[in-house]
Design a protein that fits this description.
Number of strands: 0
Mean pLDDT: 81
Strand content: under 5%
Low-confidence stretches: none
Order of helices and strands: HHHHHHHHHHHH
Radius of gyration: 18 Å
Distance between the termini: 16 Å
Helix content: over 70%
Oligomer: single chain
Structural class: mainly alpha
Number of helices: 12
Amino acid sequence: MADLKQEQKRDNYIRGIGMIVLSAFCFACMNICVRLAGELPSVQKSFFRNLVAAVFAGGIVWKDGIALRVPKEACPALIMRCLAGTLGILCNFYAIDHLLIADASILNKLSPFFAIVFSFLLLKEKIAPFQAACVAVAFCGCLFIVKPGFQNAALIAALTGVLGGLGAGIAYTMVRRLGILGVRGPVIVFFFSLFSCVAVVPWMLFQYAPMTLRQGAVLLMAGLCAAGGQFSITAAYTYAPAGKISIYDYSQIIFASALGFAFFGEIPDMYSFIGYLLIIAASLLIFLYNRRKL
């Protein structure tokens, strides 16, 4: 019986890694689409991003006959997930619109660091010194990647990006809490996406900017990518603790760099390649460490 539980725990850990890497790719694609949508308000972009996710999540809930009831003890975590997640998205989209894509991506990728910290503070999940060291190495690698443009970033936009990472980190910690309490992934995504849409409706009513057909199509594609990323990362944090898998969310930097080259001709410099090596090395080390602990 003990061996069966150990094997299930190991399988969930591997699934969590796979889901978080998939979510990183989807969110990298979303960032590219957000930039391709052109000169539109960040709030408007976030509305369409969450609208698509809400429709998809609602469809899954309806198709699978999943009840939208949430246990009373899970309501505070769900509310915090919605509030923090909405803050994270709005700040991230603002950063994408006002900073280099690489800069915006790295600031948002502070979320795994915040997720580990808040998992310790709120969920009482232990952080081993080796895990903390690997997160620090990965963070240093990210700084190498954005070094060329970071010093010229607008202060308000950069601080907004950091705030977005903080919001995302808290949100993902709450996803883990909701998973522990038995709340299904589609239910979490549906409530969060619906809340994020409703929260910006007053702004949309008074500040809506007309869009071209191309901009609308690109924003719908951003919404599809975001939905894929949202479902994947929700599944990831219900499979395994943030402290064990959140490091793999840094793979988004690699995806974003590759897509940035494909769409905008951005060529990473030597410092960026150093950053890639640091991130991959940290991910490999923490993966091997966690395998020994499973």
